[in-house]
Amino acid sequence: MDSGLAISSPKPYSVITTGSYASKASQHTKKTQIKYNLKRVQQLSLGHRYKCIEGGFAYQECNRKYVVQAVPESSFDSEPHTSNPQIILHSVKDFLATLCTLSYPYAMIGLALCALSSSLLAVEKLSDISLSFFVGVLQAAVPQLFFAIYSNALNQVSDLEIDKINKPHLPLASGQLSLKTVVIIAASFLTLSFWLSWIVGSWPLIWNLVLITSIWTAYSVNVPFLRWKKNPILAAMCMVSSWAFVLPITFFLHMQTFVLKRPIVFPRSLILAIVIMNFFFVGMALAKDIPDVEGDKIYGIDTFAIRIGQKQVFWICIFLFEMAFGVSLVAGATSSSLLVKIITGVGNAVLASVLWFQANSIDLSSKTSGGSFYMLIWKLMYASYFLVALIR
Questions:
Q1: Of 91, 157, 211, 385, most Cβ neighbours within 10 A?
Q2: 228 and 115 share a domain?
Q3: Which residues make beta-bridge pairs with 67?
Q4: CB-based burial of residue 39 (10 Å sphere; 0-12 exposed, 13-18 middle, 19+ buried)?
Q5: In contact, 175 and 128? CB cutoff 8 Å
């Protein structure tokens, strides 16, 4: 053997090729994987000279230098990299982050707060707020959160080409998730939401899912007579009917009839909440299209922002949101509780002031600024849910 050797070891070795060593090396290579890397040869001709001596060979070598690189031999005892818990945990985190982007977390927070706020409207005395109350809130909220993933995934499947222009960061539009994967996610979470509601056995929650599944499927899916989002009036009706009517009424009835075991009623507090949320979500239905004018024009999605202009729609939205805060303030002022009057009065005045101040600094020509304004509305609505729950 007239080549440099790399022995399977983490330490480098210098190798001297001799006749006496050759037999030992040949035995050693049976157990060890050997790799060599010739780094520098000082002479192009190695100048080997051989002569026969007593039936053997004498070997002489001129000016050769080797670098020995030891590479450990693969063994069945080594741990597979794929089983590394850190790699698995990192993959799970990546998937959850992508799923979070797919599902619009701000809408899911809104759903959870809507379930809590509407359930609080059924509370008549402090003893009603018990463990069963919070279990009832979870029974209402969790299937809705799963449904939200279905609804948003379906909308992104239907709007794939539009989102490549308006929202290229979304996981489907950006290629993070394949179309097949998103369809499987949508179907899985819709099935899971219905299964959980059926297990709970609350008819208000079951009817809740039947109604909003019908509404938001009709809103998104591109088949004849559907895809209601192409019509601005139908699109606004989808948002208002689900958020301002179906959700608060069914959540309230679930708590009232299923959890607290009381007869069906429609108290003043629920009616006021519906009125306030109507103002909010009519404005929300208009505001959500303001940043998306470019892509909507290309793909024939008719919106009020396209029909009458972004600026006009923007100030209509501001008026509607301020009306929502105004109605909430007046409703709170009519409460028999002084504490409720103070909290709802001060709270709604602060929210209205923040909205007005921010509205005057929005640049409608900037998609980023328009998106920030839309997120501000959601945050103001979160706070409004708490104030609405106090109205009696």
A1: 385
A2: yes
A3: 37
A4: exposed
A5: no
Does residue 83 belong to any structural domain of this protein? no
CA gap 185, 181 in Å, rounded: 6
| Distance in angstroms (rounded) separating the CA atoms of residues 230 and 220 | 9
User: Phi first, then psi: what are they for 40, rounded to 5°?
Assistant: -150, 135
Record the tokens describing residue 268, joined without a space: 């003043």
Task: Verify that 219 and 360 share a domain, yes or no.
Answer: no
Per-residue pLDDT reduced to its tens digit, 295-333 = 777 777 778 888 888 889 899 999 999 999 999 999 999
What residues make up the domain containing 370?
267-392
Residue 336 within a domain: yes
**Residues sharing a CB contact under 8 Å with residue 260, sequence separation 6 or more, in sequence order:** 122, 128, 133
382 and 333 co-located in one domain: yes
List 58's β-bridge partners, or say none: 51
CB count in 10 Å sphere of residue 43:
9
Model confidence, pTM: 0.73
The answer to whether residues 240 and 104 belong to one domain is yes
Choose the final residue of a domain: 229, 262, 295: 262
Give the count of alpha carbons within 13 A of 66, CB side only. Answer: 21
Instruction: Judge whether 196 and 146 are in contact, CB under 8 Å.
Output: yes
CA-wise closest residue to 324 among 375, 252, 385: 385
Are residues 226 and 314 both part of a single domain?
Answer: no
pLDDT tens digits, one per residue of 198-224:
999 999 999 999 999 999 999 998 888
Which position has the token pair 């480098």?
A: 12
Beta bridge partners of 51: 58
Note whether 113 and 193 are same-domain residues. Answer: yes
Q: How far apart are CA 120 and CA 188, in angstroms?
A: 31
In a domain? residue 13: yes
Nearest CA-CA partner of 116 in 277, 284, 248: 248
- How many CB atoms are located within 10 Å of the residue 224 CB? 5
126 and 195 together in one domain: yes
